[in-house]
Amino acid sequence: MSGFEFFFGFFGLILGLSVVEVITGFGKVLRRREAIRLGWVTPLLALFVLLDVASFWSVSWTRMQDVEPGYLLLLIGMAIAGIYYLASSLVFPDDLDTWPSLDEFYDRHKRWVVGGVWTAKTLSHTALLGVAGGWGAVQTYWTSPFILIVAVWLFPLMLAICFVRNRTANAVMLTLMILFYLFFMGGVAFLN
Predict the structure, then answer these.
(1) Which of 9, 29, 101, 108 sits in a 20 to 30 Å window from 137, CA-based?
(2) What is the pLDDT of residue 131?
(3) Is the Cβ–Cβ distance between 63 and 130 less than 8 Å?
């Protein structure tokens, strides 16, 4: 087993738990759907988190194949995956009886979830620059179409969701981010 495979196995385990958190939350809600009001924003948030984790997992696997991970990179990876896990654990409430409306739960926790995803994404892009090495790699990185679209499309929408209180506006922004993952990331994956 290579160092990368060891690192990614550990890293992937934590990311996999993030996916399990969101899917388990969906399951709890579906079992109690007669007793709670689901709304739109929480399912959209859950789908956004799942797509973002999948995207991050895919990009990390592709871009870090040649990196020999050391202790610092392991800590950074653990921090990023840990932030994803914490954000994922806040998409749905643990006790559905306390939150009969998931829209209210969303209003209370969206900053932690979306802010966590934003933080994890920012840390991961910074870490990728750190392992890329050299000014030429930094210039190439920031002029790639993928990174420019992430910086221009996703980051501003994520920050806006953290501060805009209107649920309809939040639903629209979440939908735009989901469409980014489905069409842009899906198109990139299909072409590769």
Answers:
(1) 9
(2) 62
(3) no
CA dist 177 and 116 (Å) reads 15
Per-domain boundaries in the chain? 3-191
For 3, residues 6+ apart whose C-beta sits below 8 A from its C-beta are 68, 69
- Higher-pLDDT residue of 112, 189: 112
CA-to-CA distance for 136 and 33, rounded, in angstroms?
53
> Above 70 in pLDDT, residue 178?
yes
Q: Name, in order, each residue with C-beta under 8 angstroms of 176's C-beta and a sequence gap of 6 or more.
A: 153, 157
φ/ψ of residue 37, rounded to 5: -100, 115
DSSP letter string over 41-110? HHHHHHHHHHHHHHHHHHHHHHHTTT----HHHHHHHHHHHHHHHHHHHTSS-S-TTT-SBHHHHHHHHH
